[in-house]
C-alpha cells in the first residue's frame, strides 16, 4: 500500500458532481485541479429551469457553488480544457491538459459583454440544445463562471472569411487575441475524480418519431431551455414551428430506454421525475393547457418524489396514459401521437401542438477516449465501470481514480451530490494517510 | 444482363399490367428476364408459425432458379418478394429446417440464390443515375407518392432493402424518372392486405388513411409494387368517396407502369383500363417524349 | 368470479404449444402497449394485441382463442418492428389462429363470398386469407 503521495487532486468535469467533489476536497485543506471541457462550469444542471422535487430555480441553487469554485483559493480551474494524457500511478499522476484557445485574453477581459452584444454572427447554441442561438463570441450564460467569452472559429466571420473583427474594435481592454494558440499544461496529482457527466440518445436516430426533423417535437433538455427564464424564449413555451403557445402537449417517457431491441436496455432513472416536473411547469405557464404523459411505469423512489408525481396528476390534472407511443407524424400543423391506453385496452390518438421526448440517458461520447487515456474501464454501455457495483460504486477499475455522478450511471442531483462527496471522501482518506505523521 | 424472373400468380392474371409493363421496361433497359419454369404460388403470406412445409412452395421456386443456373431471382410483387426472400433465408441459415424442407420437396437447395426486388435490382445493378439517362419521357410535374407498404420494409433485418422508418429508395427511383416524389406519413403503413377478404372494413380504413395522407401532402398519384396493395388502395375508392366526405380519388400506379412511361414505351398492355380510378387525366399531363430511346 | 392462478394454469399445455408454434417467449412482454399503438387494425379489435399477450401470460389461452382480434391481424409486422423486447406479436397471433383452426373455429369460408368479389380480388388475397382464416 502506498504510504506517500502528492496530496493534490485532479477532478475532471465541473458539473454538479465535479464541483461537489472539488469543493469537498478543497474545503478539507487540499489543492484541486478542476478541468472542464466547456468554457464555463456548471454542466447540465445549469441548463435546467427548476429541479425536482422542490422546483427550486436551478441557477439559484447552483450559482453559490459555481461562485465558490471560481473563487476558491485552493481550486485551480481550467475551463475550455481537456485531459489528453496521463502518466504515473496513484500518488503521483502526471496529467497533460490541453487548453483550447479562447481567442480572448482572459487576464484582460473584464466580462463586460460588449463583444457578445455586438457580434453580428449568430448560430444555433449547444447550451440551448439547438432551440436558441448564440453569437460567435459567447459565454454560456449570464452567470457563467468564469465570466469570460470564447470565440468559436467555425462561426466567426473573421476566422471564416477574414472580415469583421467588431469585437476587437469594441473591446475596451483590447482583450481579443485572434492569434492565440492552444497550450498544454502538466499537473502532478495524487488522485483523480472522473465526473464527466452524460449524453442523451440522439432523436435523429428515432425514425418513427420524426428522426429529429419535426420542429415541434423536442427532447426533454430542449424543453428545459424553453422553460428556463434565461433561455431563448425567456421561459415562455412556444412552438418552434410558428411561435404559438401550445395548448396540448404530449410528453413521451422511455424513449429508447428500457428498449433492449433498439435502444438502451436500462432505465434512465431521471425521466419519470423530470417529465412530471415538465408537465407541472407547463401547466404553471399555460393555465388552460392540457398535458398528457405516456408512460410504462412511474419510477419515483426518492424522497418526496412519489408525492411530487401525484401532485402532477391530482393538482395539475396531467393525464397519465399507460402505454408506449408507436408513432409521431405531422398533420395539419399538429403532431399526431399514436399510443395505447393499456389499462382500458384502447388505442388512443392525440393531435398535439408539441411533443416532448424523454430520451435515454447515455454515456458521454467522449467517455471511451477518456477511459483509454486514464487507463480505466467502461461498461458495455460506455459508462465508466465501477470496481464493484454493489460495494464500491465510487471507485473506478484503477487505484487512485474515482467516479462521481452520471459518468458512472444515470442518476439525479441528490444521488450525484452524495456520490461526489463519497468520491471526495475516498480521495481525502488517501491524502490523510499521505500527510499524517506516524503515530507512536 | 439477365436475371431469373418469378411473376407469381396474380401477375399472370389479375395484375397482368404489372407483369407486362415490367417485361417491356426491363427489356428496354437491356435486362433479360428468364422466367423460371414450372413455378408455383409463393404462398402469398410468410408462415409465421414454425411450420416448415408451408415454405415448400416458395422454396420450390428457388430450387427452379438454382437449377436454371441463375444466381439471382427477381420478384416484382412485394408480397412474392417478401415471402421468397424470407423463405430463402430459412434455407440458408436454419440447418434443421433446411433438411426437413429439402426432404419434403426432394431437393438439395442451400439458400444460395439472391432474391431481388425491382428497386434494388435497378439501384444496385443498373444505378439510378444510369436509369435517369435512359428516361426519354420524364414524368415532369407529376407529384408521386411512393407506397412501400409492409413487405418492402419489414421485417427490417431480413428484408434490409432500406431504413424501415425513413426509407428513400422508392423516392430516389421516382426522382430518377423525373417525377417529384412526395413524402407523407403513411408510406410504410399497412393497406390491410388480406383483411380485404376477412375484414374489408379494416382494410378500407387503413387504405383510406394512406390515400388521404398522400393527398393532403400534395400527391397526384400513389405508386405501389404489389397487386394486393393496388387492389386495396384503388378498388374501394368509390366507396370511400361515399363514406368520407371530401375524399378525392387518387390514381394508383404500379411501379413498372411509371417506369415504362418514363422510358417512352407504348402503354398498351399496361392495364390502365383495369384501374378503378381512371389514371388517364393524369397520364395526359405527362409531356411527350423529349429524347430518343 | 376470480381468475385462479397457479403453476399448472400458467404453464399449461396450450401455453407451451403457443410458445412452440410461435417461437416467442410471452413472459418477455412488459405490457408497454407499443404493439397495440402501432397496429393498423387495433381500432376494430375487441382485445388489443398487448391484451392478447397478457391473457397468454396469465394462462388464459382459451379466452385468447375466442377473441375476434386474432383474425384481424394482417401480419404487417409493425408490432414486431417496434416491440422493445423483440417479441414478434404477429407470430403469437398466428399461433393462436393455428390452434383455433385446429379446434374447428373458423373465421370465414369461401362459400360465403359474393361472386363479384371473387372475380375482382387478386388471388393472393385468397391464398393469404385462407391460409390465415381457414383449414
Count of helix runs of chain C: 9
Q: What Rg of chain C is obtained from the alpha carbons, in whole angstroms?
A: 16 Å
Content of β-strand of chain C = under 5%
Mean pLDDT of chain B: 93
Strand percent estimate of chain B: 5-15%
Largest sheet of chain C: none
Residue stretches of chain C low in confidence (pLDDT < 50, at least 5 long) are none
Distance between the termini of chain B: 18 Å
Helix-and-strand structural type of chain C: mainly alpha
Overall shape of chain B: it is globular
What kind of oligomer do you see?
A: heterotrimer
Shape of chain C: globular
Distance between the termini of chain C: 35 Å
The radius of gyration computed from the alpha-carbon positions of chain B, rounded to a whole number of angstroms, is 19 Å
DSSP summary: helix tally of chain B:
15
Into which percent range does the helicity of residues of chain C fall? 40-55%
Say how many strands of chain B there are.
8
Structure in words:
The complex is a heterotrimer of chains A (440), B (293) and C (135). Chain A is an alpha/beta fold. Chain A has ten helices and 24 strands. Chain A has helices at 16-27, 58-71, 114-118, 157-161, 166-170, 220-227, 271-285, 305-314, 367-374, 413-435; strands at 8-12, 31-35, 50-51, 56-57, 75-78, 81-89, 92-99, 122-124, 133-135, 137-138, 150-151, 183-189, 191-194, 198-200, 217-219, 248-255, 290-295, 319-322, 325-331, 334-341, 346-352, 354-359, 361-363, 401-403. In chain A, the strands form eight sheets. In chain A, strands 5-2-1-13-24 form a five-stranded parallel sheet. The model of chain A has no long low-confidence stretch (mean pLDDT 95). Chain B has a four-stranded parallel sheet with strand order 2-1-3-4, with helices on both faces. A four-stranded parallel sheet of chain B has the order 6-5-7-8, sandwiched between helices. The longest helix of chain B has 17 residues, at 200-216. Chain B is an alpha/beta fold and 293 residues long. Chain C is mainly α and 135 residues long. Chain C is 51% helix and 0% strand. The longest helix of chain C is centred in the last third of the chain and has 14 residues, at 89-102. The chains are: A alpha/beta (440), B alpha/beta (293), C mainly alpha (135).
In terms of topology, how is this protein built?
The complex is a heterotrimer of chains A (440), B (293) and C (135).
Chain A: E1 8-12, H1 16-27, E2 31-35, E3 50-51, E4 56-57, H2 58-71, E5 75-78, E6 81-89, E7 92-99, H3 114-118, E8 122-124, E9 133-135, E10 137-138, E11 150-151, H4 157-161, H5 166-170, E12 183-189, E13 191-194, E14 198-200, E15 217-219, H6 220-227, E16 248-255, H7 271-285, E17 290-295, H8 305-314, E18 319-322, E19 325-331, E20 334-341, E21 346-352, E22 354-359, E23 361-363, H9 367-374, E24 401-403, H10 413-435
Parallel strand pairs in A: 1-2, 1-13, 2-5, 13-24, 15-22, 16-17, 16-22, 17-18
Antiparallel strand pairs in A: 3-4, 6-7, 7-12, 8-9, 10-11, 14-23, 19-20, 20-21
Helix pairs in contact in A: 1-2, 1-10, 6-7, 7-8
Chain B: E1 2-6, H1 9-12, H2 16-28, E2 32-35, H3 56-67, E3 72-75, H4 78-93, H5 95-105, E4 114-116, H6 118-126, H7 128-134, E5 143-146, H8 156-159, H9 169-176, E6 180-181, H10 195-198, H11 200-216, E7 221-224, H12 227-234, H13 237-243, E8 252-254, H14 255-262, H15 280-284
Parallel strand pairs in B: 1-2, 1-3, 3-4, 5-6, 5-7, 7-8
Helix pairs in contact in B: 2-14, 3-4, 4-5, 6-7, 7-9
Chain C: H1 7-10, H2 13-22, H3 34-38, H4 49-57, H5 61-65, H6 78-82, H7 89-102, H8 115-120, H9 123-133
Helix pairs in contact in C: 2-7
